[in-house]
Structure formats: C-alpha cells, structure tokens
Amino acid sequence: MEALTRDFFLFLSKNNFLNKLAQNSGGNFAAGKIIGGTNFQSSIRFIRELNKQGLSVTVDHLGEFVDSKEVANERTEECIQTIEMIKKENLDSQVSLKMTSLGLDIDRDLVVQNMTRILDTAEKNQVMVTIDMEDVPRCQATLDLFKQFKEKYHYVSTVLQAYLYRTEADLADVSDYNPFLRLVKGAYKESPEHAYPEKKDVDENYKKLIAQNLLNGNYTAIASHDDQIIEFTKEFAKKNNIPNDQFEFQMLYGMRNKTQLELVKQGYKMRVYVPYGLDWYGYFMRRLAERPANIAFVFKGMVKK
Ligand SMILES: Cc1cc2nc3c(=O)[nH]c(=O)nc-3n(C[C@H](O)[C@H](O)[C@H](O)COP(=O)(O)OP(=O)(O)OC[C@H]3O[C@@H](n4cnc5c(N)ncnc54)[C@H](O)[C@@H]3O)c2cc1C
Question: Which residues pair with 222 in a beta bridge?
Fold first, then answer.
C-alpha cells in the first residue's frame, strides 16, 4: 500500500497539466507551508519569521535538469541577486543549488563559468553556497566540480548521500579539503547496483558517515527528519567531545516544526531548507511520495504549530 501511494504521488509529480495549473495559481496554496514563495523576494518574510525563532535558513530556487543555456544563465543571474539580497537584508541564510540548474547536462564549461560568478559573489558577501547532490550519473561530475571550486573558494560546500556504496570512499576523498558537508540519506530512485536497497543499511551507513566526518574534525550538517539519526548524533557528539558548533541539523521547511524549535532550545544549530520558485508542484508531490502523512499539514494548517 505504501509503495502504491508513493508511486501515485511520483506519477502526479510528473503531470504537466497539473504542473502548469500549479504555476498559474501563483503558489499561494504552498507559500508559507512548504515553499517560501514563487520568488526569493516573496520568501523573505518567511525567512525572517524563521530567523526570529532562532532558525537558520538555506534557500533553493526550485527547478533542476535545465536544458537550455539561456535558462542556466538566468538561474545564475537570479542566484547572484539572491546572495546580494541575503546580505543586504541581513538574513541568516545560505544558498543551495543544483549543478543541473546551471547547465551540467549541457556543458561542463558553462557550469564552471556560472559557478565562478556565483562563488565570486558568495565570497564577497560571505554567504555559503551548498551544491546539492543529484542522482548517480551526476555524482562524480558534481564532486569533481566541488573539489575544483574548493581549491579557490571558502564559501562552497556539498552533499554526500548515505544510500550509495561509494560514499564512504568519497568522504575520505573530500576530507582533505576541510569541507562543510551536508550528509543525507539520499532522495533519488537508485538501483541496488549503486545503493543499499534496505533502509536499515542506509541508516547504518548514515551513522558511520556522521561519526567519521565529525571525528575528521569537519563541519557536518545532518539533514534528516529521523529521530533515530538525530539522537545518534547528539549522543555521539557528547561522548566524543565534539562541540555543538562543529555540526548542525537541517530539515525541510514545513516538516517537524516543533522538533526544529526543540533542537534550538536544546542549544543546537538548526537550519531550515526553504525552497522557492514556480516549480513548487513537483517538489510538493515528491515530499508526499516520501511521506503521505505530510499532506496533513497542508489541510490542517499544522505548519503554524
Ligand atoms: C535540508 C535537506 C537537504 C537535502 N538535500 C539533499 C540532497 O542534496 N540530495 C539528496 O539526494 N537528498 C537530499 N535531501 C533528502 C534526503 O536525502 C532524504 O530523502 C529525506 O531527507 C528523507 O530522509 P530522512 O532522513 O528525513 O528520513 P526518512 O528515512 O524519510 O524518515 C525516517 C523517519 O523520520 C520520521 N519523519 C520523517 N519525516 C517526518 C515528518 N515530516 N514528520 C514527522 N516525522 C517524520 C519518521 O519517523 C520516519 O519514519 C535533503 C534533505 C534535507 C532535510
């Protein structure tokens, strides 16, 4: 039944008619619930609300797998303006982006050009830019780009996925760069050739990676809604004298709001991932596919709790 529901929402996520309808509706349904707004400007008031509650933010302009140079360049321009606005508005926010949104599927040089402009701006404004990790065919290219940028820039970080067999070796590989790393379970549908098919193995590997990265002395963002992972991190940090300022928790906007605030109260750094943009419909359906119970907060207005 669970698999059926998941497949149903994934099917809906790819429906062009519903996607267009959602874009035309202006995102009012989702704004302030699962996305900030349909553009960065309209997301600012929600980011401020989060900041006021002690929550840090990272923003992400929705829409990956860009297949035209013009759109990739527009994305770059928009990202530069977002970074400048974060600084100007004095927001406690970073930026997350995907290499495919800057043209990875078109031309690697285009991504390098676009990212160089973005990271020059990030460095000047001291705003961290995290390169989200995408699916397996883009993983090596993403890591190679990260390492290339990290040679020159401080304000760049990336993500590693616990469901991939390769990640332990990748963690060792990037460790010398003293990276700020976000560790996640992994969001894409990958084959058993590349990824652990069983949740319990993903969870075990996740804990191993968190422990390793913390012991390496590198800053670690644990991006998970899973209590078991959060408790593991807290206990591991305590036992190994890892200071609270060497790690942070991250969750998606609108998910587990009470837990987010509870973690802040306990003295942990908590960052909320706030997506924005017209392409909110597919994002929403993918969240429902992950956890159909998420639909409840939309209808019950649970987000205000
Ligand atoms: C900030 C952030 C950034 C991310 N970046 C990337 C990325 O770059 N690349 C990538 O591949 N993936 C990324 N992800 C997605 C990630 O890989 C997972 O797919 C996603 O977070 C679901 O896994 P989970 O660890 O939250 O726990 P799950 O395994 O989905 O859930 C475990 C348990 O947590 C509890 N739980 C989960 N959600 C809720 C909820 N809403 N309310 C109450 N309880 C809940 C339930 O008990 C559930 O059984 C990101 C996730 C976050 C939060």
Answer: 183, 249
Mean pLDDT of 24-52: 89
Q: Is 66 left (phi over 0), alpha (psi -120 to 50) or beta?
A: beta
Residue 291 CA, ligand 1 centroid: distance in Å: 9
Nearest to residue 209, comparing CAs of 238, 191, 186, 189? 186
Return the best residue to mutate from 9, 59, 136, 225 for the ligand 1 pocket (most ligand atoms within 8 A of CB).
Answer: 225
| Residue 29 located in a structural domain | no
For atom 33 of ligand 1, the residue with the nearest CA is: 226
What's the CA gap between 190 and 202, in Å, rounded? 12
Residue 10's pLDDT band (boundaries 50, 70, 90)?
A: confident
Domain count, the chain: 1
Q: Is residue 303 part of a domain?
A: no
User: Do 42 and 31 contact (CB within 8 A), yes or no?
Assistant: yes
Per-residue pLDDT for 289 more than 90? no
The answer to whether residue 135 is catalytic is no
Domain that holds residue 258: 39-276
* Annotation marks residue 132 as catalytic: yes
Tell how far the Cα of 290 is from the centroid of ligand 1, in angstroms. 8
For 142-178, the pLDDT digits (tens) are 999 999 999 999 999 999 999 999 999 999 999 999 8
The CATH number of whichever domain residue 62 belongs to comes to: 3.20.20.220
Give the Cα separation of 70 and 64 in Å (integer): 14
Give the three-state DSSP class for 139.
Answer: helix
What is the rounded end-to-end Cα distance, in angstroms, of the chain? 29
Q: How far apart are CA 187 and CA 222, in angstroms?
A: 14
CA–CA gap between residue 233 and residue 289 (Å, rounded): 26
Instruction: Decide if 281 is inside a domain.
Output: no
> Residue 297: inside a domain, yes or no?
no
CB atoms within 10 A of CB 285: 21
